[in-house]
Design a protein that fits this description.
39% strand, single chain, 10 strands, alpha+beta, 10-stranded antiparallel β-sheet
Length: 177
């Protein structure tokens, strides 16, 4: 586990990206850096019937938040309006090395309707307009990497310390740090 910082907020209560940064700054940096390696990522949303929908998305970390922007009227935006639960998986890139680890975040997407916030975002990002803008409230952040001879799984949830599990191919029981 990390140096004993408990997460931000009550256990289980979603937090914005600033909450992850405050609770586990090194871990948050590694996750954001990994998302920054590629422009496009995979967003999982829930369709009306509850089945999963996977869509491409550009994730954007700025102003202490994780922003999810999408075309006006897109299926993923309509999914999030109906059911805000999502999971965002970083683009794994070419090859099999997963340099920087494999990362994903999950939580709820809150649609931004404040015209000032939307204008500020649009002035910096210059997205095609009109667009939907959602702010991520996170319930889980996970990074999986390889530190030979171990597969290392780091997971963080609001109100809890970072949990690190190391597992080797010969391990009957994973080692929890």
């Amino acid at each position: 586990m990390s140096a004993g910082r408990a997460g931000s907020g009550a256990v289980g209560r979603p937090v914005g990206w600033a909450g992850v940064l405050a609770a586990e700054p090194d871990f948050a940096r590694r996750v954001a850096d990994r998302f920054g390696t590629f422009k496009h990522h995979i967003l999982g949303t829930l369709r009306k019937d509850g089945s999963p929908r996977l869509s491409g998305l550009e994730a954007d970390f700025r102003y202490g938040e994780l922003w999810l922007g999408m075309m006006s009227g897109s299926r993923k935006a309509l999914d999030l309006r109906r059911d805000p639960r999502f999971s965002l998986h970083a683009n794994p890139g070419a090859g099999t090395d997963l340099a920087g680890g494999d990362v994903r975040v999950s939580g709820r997407a809150v649609e931004v309707t404040d015209p000032g916030v939307i204008a500020r975002y649009a002035a910096e990002v210059r997205p095609p307009e009109p667009f939907h803008l959602f702010r991520a409230e996170l319930t889980e952040v996970v990074r999986t990497s390889v530190e030979d001879p171990y597969l290392v799984l780091e997971s963080w949830r609001p109100g809890r310390p970072l949990r690190t599990v190391r597992r080797g191919s010969e391990d009957a029981t994973p080692r929890v740090d």
